[in-house]
Specification:
Blueprint lengths: L1 E3 L1 H20 L6 H19 L6 E6 L3 E3 L4 E9 L6 E8 L9 E4 L6 E7 L5 E13 L5 E16 L3 H9 L20 E7 L11 H7 L3 E6 L5 E7 L7 E2 L2 E2 H18 L3 E7 L3 E9 L4 H9 L10 H11 L5 E5 L9 H11 L3 E7 L2 H8 L5 H26 L3 E5 L4 H14 L4
Parallel strand pairs: 3-9, 12-15, 12-17, 17-18, 18-19
Antiparallel strand pairs: 1-9, 2-4, 4-7, 5-6, 5-8, 8-9, 10-11, 13-14, 15-16
Helix pairs in contact: 3-5, 5-6, 5-11, 7-8, 9-10
């Protein structure tokens, strides 16, 4: 495909009025008009003929099999000309609405080796993303025409939760005893498992002395305990419309899913059992808790099935259904969102009922834009009003979190980039304190 460049269009647009002006000034100059048009068309055809032919350019597109939500990904294009001409290639990629539009790329062809071009791809939501086509164009040596080549791709790419962050977490906790510290720690307290008897020495807790065995052996013996395993952890995700709000390029639900996968891997390594629960106006998903690092793929598949919803969250149905499905005391990681104290009343009532039997960790995300509105300098009455309203929202948010803490619920209100480490640290602290 051949198209004129803006330079050629401008030359023609300026030349035609000039030709008519010359004819009006001197009618005897009319033979030069066809000559001018002939030379212009000849220049266009010559520029098109001297340009690199699309058949002389081999293009290889390597699309990734999957994209991870929240992780920088992309695909590579290899350009291999089979001609001595080396123009600058302009590339543009068409994608669907689930992908951010990649920028245009200029790639000067190399005379010695193939040229590699990288297109960054960033998915907005989990599901399917489609790369439609690839556009390539370059100028002729005279700069009058564009040679255009369109490569139809039409390939769907799966957008999955971010397991790259899980791999990074796995490297941090590669040592099986990493979650307990440098050395194995025997945690004492209610709910711990008995490990062995040892001779009492000054400095040990006198409450750990076993008087019955001490009398039998005529020597003071104390009990040693180890951290209890095989706990049941449930990742409960609110899939309602508030969790579909974008935050730092991703929806709040995607941030929650990525953090849940990181915590799930650590929990499986610690010997606990992990389940997934999703709800909005009704129960969307429930995956029975399973143990073993080899079952992480089940957790990943269940997390990928959590879909976005426009429904309002029914906490009464969702949390009561979850409580009915749990047959033993569990650690429930509830990742949700609320707006103010009025809409949070039903949530508080049902979380209190759930916390009566289970240990609940309440996780929500801070909105940096809301905090920036409060801290920003008011330059007008409108900005001052927005700042006051934003401060009221933050105050009501603090009130709800304080009420949850008084109910014995562990609360995490963190930024989106801190949710993964903060959730893992709170889980390890709960394990250390033997709260479950």
């Amino acid at each position: 495909m051949i198209r004129p460049t803006p330079r050629a269009v401008a030359a023609f647009a300026a030349g035609i009025p000039l030709a008519f002006a010359l004819l009006l000034a001197d009618p005897d100059l009319w033979p030069y008009v066809p000559a001018y048009l002939f030379l212009a068309c000849f220049a266009l055809l010559a520029d098109a003929g001297l340009a690199l032919s699309p058949q002389r350019l081999n293009v290889q597109v390597n699309l990734p099999p999957a994209l991870y939500i929240g992780a920088p990904e992309g695909f590579q294009v290899r350009l291999e000309p089979t001609s001595y001409r080396r123009p600058v290639i302009e590339l543009l990629c068409d994608v669907d609405d689930n992908l951010e539009q990649p920028p245009r790329v200029l790639a000067p062809l190399d005379a010695e080796e193939d040229t590699l071009v990288y297109f960054p791809l960033r998915a907005r939501r989990r599901g399917k993303a489609r790369v439609e086509r690839l556009w390539l164009r370059w100028k002729g040596p005279l700069g009058l025409v564009y040679r255009l080549r369109v490569i139809e791709l039409g390939k769907d790419i799966a957008v999955t939760p971010n397991t790259k962050a899980v791999k990074h977490t796995a490297l941090q906790y590669a040592d099986p005893m990493a979650i307990f510290g440098i050395k194995p720690q025997r945690q004492q307290g209610e709910g711990s498992e008995f490990e062995a008897l040892r001779e009492y020495v000054p400095g040990l807790d006198p409450r750990s002395i076993d008087w019955k065995h001490s009398a039998r052996h005529m020597n003071l013996l104390c009990k040693e305990f180890r951290s209890e395993r095989n706990h049941q952890v449930v990742l409960a995700f609110d899939c309602g419309h508030l969790m579909s709000e974008p935050l730092e390029g991703l929806t709040k639900l995607d941030h929650a899913v990525n953090a849940g996968l990181q915590l799930g891997y650590i929990s499986l390594r610690a010997g606990d059992r992990i389940g997934v629960y999703g709800f909005d106006s009704r129960v969307r998903l429930f995956s029975q808790p399973t143990g073993g690092v080899g079952t992480f793929w089940r957790l990943q598949r269940a997390a990928a099935e959590l879909d976005y919803s426009v429904d309002e969250t029914n906490f009464t149905l969702g949390l009561s259904s979850l409580a009915a499905r749990l047959d033993r005391r569990s650690l429930v990681i509830l990742q949700t969102e609320f707006v103010d104290t009025i809409t949070a009343e039903l949530m508080l009532e049902n979380v209190e009922r759930l916390a009566g039997r289970h240990l609940v960790v309440f996780v929500c995300l801070q909105d940096p834009q809301l905090e920036a509105t409060v801290d920003g300098e008011p330059g007008s009455l409108d900005s001052l009003a927005r700042s006051v309203i934003a401060e009221e929202f933050l105050r009501e948010r603090r009130v709800v979190l304080e009420r949850l803490r008084r109910l014995g619920v562990h609360c995490l209100d963190v930024r989106a980039d801190q949710i993964g480490p903060a959730l893992i640290n709170r889980y390890l602290d709960i394990k250390r304190r033997e709260l479950i």
